[in-house]
Amino acid sequence: MLKVEHVTKKYGNLVAVNDLSFEVKDGCIFGLLGLNGAGKTTTFRMILGLIDDYTGNITIDGKHIDYVISDKIGFLTEERSLLTKMTVLDQIIYYGRLKSMEESDIVKKLDYWLKRFEISEYKNKKIKELSKGNQQKVQFISAIINEPKLLILDEPFSGLDPINVELFKKVILDLQKKGTSIIFSSHRMEHVELFCEELVVLVKGKSVLQGKLTDIKKNYKKKNLVVVGDIDEDKLKKCDGVNKITKEGNEYIISITDETYVKSLFKEISKYDNITKFSVEDPSLNEIFISIVGEAYE
Question: Residue 125 carries which DSSP code?
C-alpha cells in the first residue's frame, strides 16, 4: 500500500503541494487529477524518490522510498522519454537494468509484451523509426517491464487511436487483477470514470475533492434529469431548481440544483405529450470536476 501523509513541498515561497494525504491500496486504481500546475508532477516525483526535501511521509508497505523500493515502481510519463537512436531491445534492456533486472529476464518479458502490444516486428528497430502510437507502446513496456508493485500512468492514452486505447485498457485492467496498484492521471474524465475507484482532485497543490468515485457522485447535490419527448424549454428554464437545459440527440439534459426539485419537475414535465423517458442521473465526473475546480479558483 502507498501512503502519502500530510506532505508539503515548497519551492521558495511557492507551495507546490499543500498538506496532501491519500492512500492507494494494493490492486486499486487511484485517480490523481488537476489542471496543469496543480501539483501532480511534483507529487509523482516525490513518490518516485526524485524529490526528497519535503515535509510529511511517503511510504510503500510502511517503508520510505529508497533505491530498493523505487525498483518496484513503474512510471509512464506524459512526455516521451525514449532515447530515439536506440533500438527497442536496447532501450528496454537499459530501463530494465536500471530496475536491477537480469538481461535474460528483461528479454523474455520484452518478447511477451511486444507480442501483447502487437509490435514484435519492431524489436530491433530504432525508436525514431516508430510511429507515435508505437513509441507510446514501447514507453508503456518500459514502465511495466519490472512488474511494478506501483504503476504511475500520466496521460497513458496520449497519441493512441481508438483500437490501441482499447488494447491499453485491457492491459491496465489485467495489471490491476494481478495486484498492481495504479495511480492514473488524465484530463479525459471519461477515462478516469472508467478506471478509478478512488480519486483526489488538486487545485494549487491542495486537495479540494477526495474519496470513492461512487460516493462523490452520489453525494454531489446537483443532479441531471434526462427527458425524451416534447417539452417547453423556455417554460422549464423558469422553474425553481433548474440550472440549465441542454439537448444531446433526442434527449434533454436538465441540470437541477438538487434532488428536492425532482418531484415538482416531474409533475410539470408529465403535463407534456409524448414523454417517453424521465430519469434522474448523477452528473458526470467531468461536470463535477469543472464545478469543484471552478469554485476553488473563485
Answer: S
